[in-house]
Amino acid sequence: MKVGEANYGSRDASVNLELELDSSLVGAPDRLKERIALNAIADRKQISLPELLTARFQIQEPSGLTITEASSLIDELKGPGGAVAR
Hints:
Elements: E1 2-4, E2 10-12, H1 23-26, H2 29-44, H3 49-57, H4 67-78
Helix pairs in contact: 2-4
């Protein structure tokens, strides 16, 4: 990003980001999107995702969900009131 300065000067900045991904997710972008969505929605609604997953599915990580389970949970979390651990 470049910012103009007086007398035709300028200053700029750049940002580099390195990210490590689980190799099983690189080949399955839909699974990656679901995990990102679950974490983002749970965070926004201030829901403990590990606690919810343990209560519902007896797992700690979203990677243990099937695609159908993950999609259903995303829909539920996005709905009014979100999910409440049962």
